[in-house]
From TrEMBL:
GO cellular component assignments: clathrin-coated vesicle; cortical actin cytoskeleton
Organism of this sequence: Cochlearius cochlearius
A GO molecular-function descriptor: actin filament binding
I/LWEQ domain boundaries: 7-251
Subcellular location: Cytoplasm
Name the UniProt record assigns to this protein: HIP1R protein
SMART domains cross-referenced by the UniProt entry: ILWEQ
Entry keyword set: Coiled coil, Cytoplasm
Annotated region described as Disordered, given as residue ranges: 259-282
Gene that this polypeptide is encoded by: Hip1r
InterPro entries: I/LWEQ_dom_sf, ILWEQ_dom, Sla2_fam
Residue runs in coiled coils: 210-246
GO process terms (BP): actin filament organization; clathrin coat assembly; endocytosis
Length: 282
């Protein structure tokens, strides 16, 4: 007991209540996200009509794809809750629910962590979409949040799968829900990138009126910016790698959790990225 990692500062007999509380909190966060997306869609319809409404619905953030994503997440959370109850009922035997959670504390903590991640990801996606609509956010935030949601739902499925029977219908439904969430998240990313491309196309580059000297100056300034951005990108990739190391250290990432024992997952290897060669003048 003394050697067991203190990942949660709560007593084992409180784990069962903690699981139910976190699953309920996640469901509440999803419901709130769906409600806020519906409000954004309703407001867009009230303020626009005809061609303008069609353009707004196709431009990022596409509220329809976000709404579909949250509907898929809501179904996944409901199915996960049903599977969790099935696991407890089939595995506890004569023990109480609290005793089952205490005996499988490592699995329980993983379930709590995954549930928190799903709720947090949904909240972040709605807030990012809201900021983009108000022109105070970045489209990249939507893409990152969509990837985060796909990862967190996969974590929830993995945590549930450890203790579930392979023949469980709820497990099959949960895996199907996970695939649906991934598909909806990919749709959000695709619609956001498409909208970005449409916006960038409006800002076309026209250098036809520049003199030779002006063109030379612009070329040199652009090369300087490219070098600066490459250096900044390299630094941000290093920072991202260090952040991920610290995240895995704090969260205690495990790739196998069985019978209360855990196997540490290997730290992710950062790919070695080479700088693209600069275009040479003829």
């Amino acid at each position: 007991q003394e050697l067991r990692p203190k990942s949660l500062d709560i007593k084992q007999e409180e784990l069962g209540d903690m699981v139910e509380k976190e699953m309920a909190s996640t469901s509440e966060a999803i419901e709130d996200a769906v409600r806020r997306i519906e409000e954004m869609m309703s407001q867009a319809r009230n303020e626009s009509s005809g061609v303008k409404l069609e353009v707004n619905e196709r431009s990022p953030p596409n509220t329809k794809t976000c709404f579909s994503l949250f509907q898929a997440i809501r179904l996944l959370v409901m199915t996960s809750t049903n599977l969790q109850k099935e696991i407890v009922e089939s595995g506890r035997g004569a023990a109480t629910t609290q005793e089952f959670y205490a005996k499988n504390s490592r699995w329980t903590e993983g379930l709590i962590s995954a549930s928190k991640a799903v709720g947090w990801g949904a909240t972040q996606l709605v807030e990012s979409a809201d900021r983009v609509v108000l022109h105070t956010g970045k489209y990249e935030e939507l893409i990152v949040c969509s990837h985060e949601i796909a990862a967190s739902t996969a974590q929830l499925v993995a945590a549930s799968k450890v203790k579930a029977e392979k023949s469980s219908r709820n497990l099959g439904r949960l895996q199907e829900c996970s695939r649906n969430v991934n598909e909806m998240a990919a749709n959000v990313v695709a619609s956001t990138k498409s909208g970005q491309e449409q916006i960038e196309e409006k800002d076309t580059m026209d250098f036809s009126g520049m003199s030779l000297i002006k063109l030379k100056k612009e070329e040199m300034e652009t090369q300087v910016k490219v070098l600066e951005l490459e250096k900044r990108l390299e630094g941000e990739r290093v920072r991202l790698g260090e952040l991920r190391k610290q995240h895995y250290a704090l969260a205690g990432a495990y790739d196998a959790v069985e019978d209360g024992e855990a196997k540490p997952a290997p730290a992710p290897r950062r790919a070695v990225l080479k700088k693209p060669p600069l275009a040479q003048k003829p």
